Amino acid sequence: MGKKIIQISDVHFGDITFSEVLKSNLLAQLEDANPDLLIFAGDLTASGFFHEYGEACEFVDELQSITQAHLIPGNHDVRNVGLVHFENLVSKRKFVHTDKSSNFTIIGLDSSEADVSHGQIGRDQMDWLKSELAKIPDDRAKVVTFHHHIIPIPQTGRERNILLDSGDLMHVLTENGVDFVLNGHKHVPNVWMLNNMVVLNSGTATTGKLRGNMCASYNELEINDGEVLVNMVKTENGSKKQMAHYSMEVKDESFVIHSYTHNPIHTV
Length: 268
Description:
The chain contains 5 helices and 13 strands. The protein has 268 residues and is of the alpha/beta class. The protein has a single domain, classed as Metallo-dependent phosphatases (Purple Acid Phosphatase, chain A, domain 2), CATH 3.60.21.10. The strands form 2 sheets. It has a 7-stranded mixed beta sheet with strand order 3-2-1-10-11-12-13, with helices on one face. Strands 4-5-6-7-9-8 form a 6-stranded mixed beta sheet, with helices on one face. A hairpin with a 4-residue loop joins strand 4 and strand 5 (104-108).
C-alpha cells in the first residue's frame, strides 16, 4: 500500500518575511494531498518567543487536523530559552515513529544549541540513536531527521554552521544502515546520495528568506512497492518538480536502495 510523507521546515513564525498567503497555500495543498505523515524538520519560529509559539501552535494544530505530524526543534526555536516553549506547547525534542505496513521507522533528533546558528547531536543523543537503530530489523527502511544539515549544500554561500559533530554522526548513520536523512536549516532544497544513504533537505515553506533563485517550497515523498519518488513542491502554486527516484528491495534480509536517479535543481 502506498504512503505519502511530507517534509517541511523553516516556516519561521514571527519573521518579517513570513507570508500568511504562503501559509494558507501550504495548508490548502496539504489538505488536497492528504498525506499519511508529516515530518517538520525544525524552525517553527523566528526567535523562540512565547508570542511566536502562540501563532505557531495554531499552525501545528491545523497540520495535525490534516495528518499525523512529528516535529523537532531548530536553532531559531531554542533562541531566548525557546526550548521551554517548544517542549511545553509543541512536542518532545525527539521521537520514534514506526510504520509496519510500509516497513519504515523514522527517528527524530534535536540538533539545536541555544542562541547560536550551528548545532550538534551530542554524545547522549548519539548513544540513544545507536540504541534505537539497533532495535530496527534489517529488512525495514531506517529514516533519521534533525534540523541542521550534515553536509554542505550547493547555492548556500560560505559554509558556516554545519553540525559540529557531523563526522561522528555520519559514522553512526552509515555504520547502522540508515537509508534516508531528512534535514532543513539552509532554506534550499537538495538531495545527496552518500554510501547508499539519501540526504534530503527541504527549503523554507512560508518565508521570503530565499537564496538566489530559490522559491518557497517543501518536499513530498511518495512510497510505493519497491520505489520512493521525491518531489519539491512550490508553496506559491503547488507545482511539483521531481528531485529524485529510488528503487528499493529487501536483499539477503536487508533493506537496500539498488538504483536511483537525481534530477538537478541547482545551477552552479
